[in-house]
Design brief:
Layout: H1 2-13, H2 27-35, H3 38-50, E1 53-57, H4 67-78, E2 86-90, H5 95-105, E3 112-115, E4 118-121, H6 123-132, H7 134-141
Parallel strand pairs: 1-2
Antiparallel strand pairs: 1-3, 3-4
Helix pairs in contact: 4-6
Length: 159
C-alpha cells in the first residue's frame, strides 16, 4: 500500500512527455511577437535584403560587445567577406530592434546572420557551418566571396 501511494505521488511530479508549444517560447518573445508591426517587419526585411551579408550583433565589428558577436565577426573575416558586401547592426543601440529581430527570425539570441535575405543562424550555427565547410559553400554560392582556387601540388620530376 505504501509503495502504491509513493508511486502515484511521484507520477504526479514527473514532467509531461511533451511540453506545450507555449512553454517553448520565452515570455518576452511571446509578448514581442504580438507587437511586431508590419512596418517594423518590412524595415527588417528591407535591411536583410539590401546587402548580401547582414549581421545583427552586440557592438560593432571593430568593437564587439560580446564574445559570440566577436566570434561571428572573426568567422566572417576568415572567409574574406568584403566590407562592402556586409552590413552590421548594433542591437545595443536600439532596444526595439533587439526585440524585433528576435521575433522576425524566431531565434532568441544575438548575433544573427542573414545571407541574401535568408536567416542562417546564430553563433553556434555559424561556427558549425564554418567547421564543416558549409559556410564557405554558402558564401560562394551567394556570390559574396570568390571560389577558392585549387592549390597546385608540386609534381615530382622523374630522373
Amino acid at each position: 500500500m505504501f509503495r502504491t501511494a509513493l508511486r502515484t505521488s511521484f507520477t504526479a511530479l514527473r514532467a509531461p512527455t511533451h511540453a506545450p508549444a507555449v512553454a517553448l517560447v520565452s515570455p518576452s518573445l511571446a509578448f514581442a511577437r504580438r507587437y511586431l508591426s508590419q512596418e517594423a517587419r518590412g524595415k527588417i526585411q528591407q535591411a536583410v535584403s539590401a546587402t548580401p551579408v547582414v549581421l545583427f550583433m552586440k557592438g560593432t565589428p571593430e568593437a564587439p560587445q560580446c564574445g559570440f558577436s566577436r566570434a561571428a565577426v572573426q568567422v566572417l573575416d576568415i572567409h574574406g567577406v568584403p566590407p562592402e558586401k556586409m552590413k552590421t547592426f548594433d542591437v545595443l543601440e536600439d532596444s526595439e530592434l533587439r526585440q524585433a529581430i528576435k521575433e522576425f527570425s524566431d531565434w532568441p539570441t544575438i548575433p544573427q546572420l542573414y545571407v541574401q535575405g535568408e536567416f542562417v543562424g546564430g553563433c553556434d550555427i555559424l561556427l558549425n557551418m564554418h567547421q564543416s565547410g558549409e559556410l564557405d559553400d554558402l558564401l560562394v554560392k551567394a556570390g559574396v566571396v570568390p571560389p577558392e582556387e585549387p592549390q597546385e601540388t608540386p609534381t615530382q620530376s622523374q630522373n
